[in-house]
Amino acid sequence: MQSGSKWQQPCVAIADTFESDFRYRRDFYGLAYFKLAVILEGIHYRYTHGQTVGVGFDTVDTVGTVVEPLIEAGLTSLKESN
């Protein structure tokens, strides 16, 4: 591609937009980690209290182990967005 072509300017504009929006998107990643952690903790709570029935719940005992790493990932993502 030649320097200064009509295709170069839109690509630069898109790259600039992505760079400025990346910090904003990290907030959403952080909140998504928290949301997933809350959902999985709810499943783990129900499992530990014998409230899960049906196919697929026989391996839920390991779900509780991923909650803390998800919360840490969420906090890290939110700290990096500032």
SSE order, as H and E?
HH
Number of strands: 0
Note poorly predicted spans: none
Report, as a whole number of angstroms, the end-to-end distance. 36 Å
Shape: elongated
Summarize the structure.
The protein is 67% helix and 0% strand. It has 82 residues and is mostly helical.
Can you walk through the features of this model?
The chain has two helices and no strands. The chain is mainly α and 82 residues long. The protein has one domain (8-80). α1 packs antiparallel against α2 (67-80). The longest helix is centred in the middle third of the chain and has 41 residues, at 8-48. The chain is elongated and about 45 Å long. 4% of the residues are buried. The model has no long low-confidence stretch (mean pLDDT 77).
Compile the SSE list and pairings:
Layout lengths: L7 H41 L18 H14 L2
Helix pairs in contact: 1-2
Key phrases:
mainly alpha; 2 helices; 82 residues
